[in-house]
Amino acid sequence: MNPQNSSPPSVKKLTEIFFRIGNTTFGGGYVTIGMLGRELVDTRRWISPEKFDLAFALARVTPGTNVIAFCVAIGALICGVAGAVAAAVAVTAPSSVLAVLIMQGFESFQGNRVAMAAIGGTVAAVAGMMWATIWVILRPHVGGLTRKGMTRNLQVVLITGGAFIASRIFGLTPLPIILAGTLIGFLWKDVPKDVPKGTQRP
Amino acid sequence: MNLLVLYLLLLKASLTSFSGLGSLPMVRNDFVVERHLLTDHQLNMAVVAGRTGPGPYGLYLVCVAYLVGGVPGACMGFLALITPAFLVIPLMRWIGARADIPRVRSAIRGLLLASAGLLLSSSVPLTRDAFTGIFSAVLMAASFAVLTFTRIDSAWLMLGAAGAGLAASLFQ
């Protein structure tokens, strides 16, 4: 947990947040992850950005649905195994029930002009959310205009751009792309971010 | 169908995929092609239902399980959906203990950047699909700006977007 936080979160409070975000966020797992990042890292500071990144990275290589693994990881980091179980159930159980209900009523739903107009608006908002989520992921890794910063930027462009091209143009599946990204990261050592003068640790 | 077998089949599909819809080829093979428990149309409906509501795209597994085994089946689908996620805990303990090693940190960074590239790749068709004219473009830009520069809850954003979509249809 982030040492800046004064009141440690309870499993109940954590469940509330996963329940609210997991069941009101449309557009799939990445959007949910972006929203959880805003809430848990930026607003409440219950978890550090480094641990958030670690959970995100490991959720990508965990079999199954990434966002559930991510929620389990975050729940475990904040409140232990109870937090992990609570996070998984709070994020998936209500939306599972809703998915089954939607499936049952889907055909009549499609003929409803009002419902389809409302869905059209949310689909556009979800697209914007996806781009915001990409920015949330990339923002901490973008450097400044110094030499070190430019090296970091080059890593961002090459690895992110390479993954994009490998997936979009060559149709590679996610696993080899992720493994290649990890290997490149391992071989091409990260350049630490520039720290303003006077704030360096001794 | 035996509920344990249903759970194991869905678990197999879930364990061998690394994204919400990554299990789809295996589910289709097991339930449509080999066992004839579902038609392609039913599987398609399950996928659409999983994508229409909130939550992860992998929820379609619960719909598939519901179609095969009713409410008890849906419970098995739910369990098969969340079970693999708990593998992240030992993974995190093992790698988390080494996360301060510069090489490990760099590898995690490489993984994150590659993931961002993959997300970028899947955002392109979604954006193209969502773009229906100037109005939808404005909604996309507004959604991006609200989430990037403000702390407004995403639920309000979705509600606002639904209302805007509704209002636009009334004026057309």
Summary tags:
heterodimer, A: 202 residues, mainly alpha, 2 domains, 72% helix, globular, disordered N terminus, B: 172 residues, 77% helix
Mean pLDDT of chain B: 84
Mean pLDDT of chain A: 81
Number of helices of chain A: 7
Largest sheet of chain B: none
Give the total of beta strands of chain B: 0
Cα-atom radius of gyration of chain B: 20 Å
Contiguous helical run count of chain B? 8
Strand content of chain A: under 5%
Order of helices and strands of chain A: HHHHHHH
User: What count of domains describes the coordinates of chain B?
Assistant: 2
Largest sheet report of chain A: none
What would you say this structure looks like, in words?
The complex is a heterodimer of chains A (202) and B (172). Helices cover 72% and strands 0% of the residues of chain A. Chain A is built from seven helices and no strands. Chain A is globular. With 172 residues, chain B is an all-alpha fold. In chain B, 77% of the residues lie in helices and 0% in strands. Chain B contains eight helices and no strands. Chain B is flat and about 50 Å long. The model of chain B has no long low-confidence stretch (mean pLDDT 84).
In brief:
The complex is a heterodimer of chains A (202) and B (172). With 202 residues, chain A is mostly helical. Chain A contains seven helices and no strands.
Secondary structure layout:
The complex is a heterodimer of chains A (202) and B (172).
Chain A: H1 11-22, H2 29-43, H3 49-60, H4 66-110, H5 113-138, H6 147-168, H7 174-187
Helix pairs in contact in A: 1-2, 1-4, 2-4, 2-5, 3-4, 6-7
Chain B: H1 3-15, H2 24-34, H3 40-52, H4 60-82, H5 88-96, H6 102-130, H7 134-149, H8 154-171
Helix pairs in contact in B: 1-2, 1-4, 3-4, 7-8
